[in-house]
């Protein structure tokens, strides 16, 4: 476990350095081949089923949402300079419509690593379109609601967006989603 977190921290530090210097070669929004697309879809479906089991109110919440993005695994780590990265899929009115990725770079007092699932719900078409067009970026103070039984029942939208996280693992002194940016690619 300790070795895994050390690798995550090192990887996040390298990732964040790459994010601050520009785009990283090899980071692509969509999987490269059909096998990768099937594997990612299965991972997203598994994650969504697990999230709905953990919080039975999530199904109704997402059913009312105009759309949502699911990032099954977001790896986050920091040693002063930090970063996070995850790949996922976007749904519009319950239908899979695209691929997405999330990146985050931070500088400051942070040490540690973690991995978690992130679900972003979009209240309306405008919010989803903003995400698709690269206009959605979370401010530094934005935090996510931890997904547990009943959490989705009380979830609120801010500027048409609601963020939930689940299954955080590892040790991290900071767990906000502020500073995240996203890219989108249609299927």
| Residue-averaged pLDDT | 78
Could you describe the largest sheet, including whether it forms a barrel?
Answer: 5 strands, mixed
Q: Which spans have pLDDT < 50 for at least 5 consecutive residues?
A: 1-26, 170-175
Query: Termini distance?
Result: 36 Å
Give the helices and strands as they follow along the chain: HHHEEHEEE
- Rg measurement, Å: 16 Å
The count of domains is 1
Principal-axes geometry comes out as globular
List its traits.
187 residues; alpha+beta; five-stranded mixed sheet
Protein architecture, described:
- By secondary structure, the protein is of the alpha+beta class.
- Helix content is 30%, strand content 40%.
- It contains 4 helices and 5 strands.
- The protein has helices spanning 2-21, 34-54, 58-64, 125-132, and strands spanning 67-92, 95-122, 145-146, 161-172, 180-186.
- Strands 1, 2, 3, 4 and 5 form a 5-stranded mixed sheet that branches.
- A hairpin with a 2-residue loop joins strand 1 and strand 2.
- The chain starts with a helix and ends with a strand.
- The relative contact order is 0.21.
Give a brief description.
This protein has 187 residues and is an alpha+beta fold.
Helices and strands in order:
Blueprint: H1 2-21, H2 34-54, H3 58-64, E1 67-92, E2 95-122, H4 125-132, E3 145-146, E4 161-172, E5 180-186
Parallel strand pairs: 3-4
Antiparallel strand pairs: 1-2, 2-4, 2-5
């Amino acid at each position: 476990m300790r070795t895994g977190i050390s690798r995550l921290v090192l990887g996040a530090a390298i990732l964040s350095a790459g994010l601050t210097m520009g785009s990283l070669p090899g980071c692509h929004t969509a999987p490269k081949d059909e096998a990768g697309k099937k594997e990612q879809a299965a991972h997203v479906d598994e994650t969504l089923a697990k999230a709905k089991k953990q919080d039975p109110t999530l199904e109704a919440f997402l059913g009312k949402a105009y759309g949502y993005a699911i990032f099954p695994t977001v790896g986050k780590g920091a040693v002063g300079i930090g970063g996070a990265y995850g790949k996922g899929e976007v749904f519009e009115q319950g239908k899979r419509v695209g691929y997405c990725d999330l990146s985050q770079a931070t500088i400051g007092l942070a040490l540690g690593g973690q991995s978690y699932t992130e679900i972003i719900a979009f209240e309306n078409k405008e919010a989803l379109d903003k995400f698709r067009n690269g206009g959605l970026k979370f401010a530094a103070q934005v935090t996510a609601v931890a997904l547990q039984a009943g959490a989705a029942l009380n979830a609120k939208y801010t500027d048409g967006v609601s963020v939930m996280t689940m299954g955080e693992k590892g040790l991290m002194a900071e767990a906000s989603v502020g500073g995240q940016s996203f890219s989108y690619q249609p299927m």
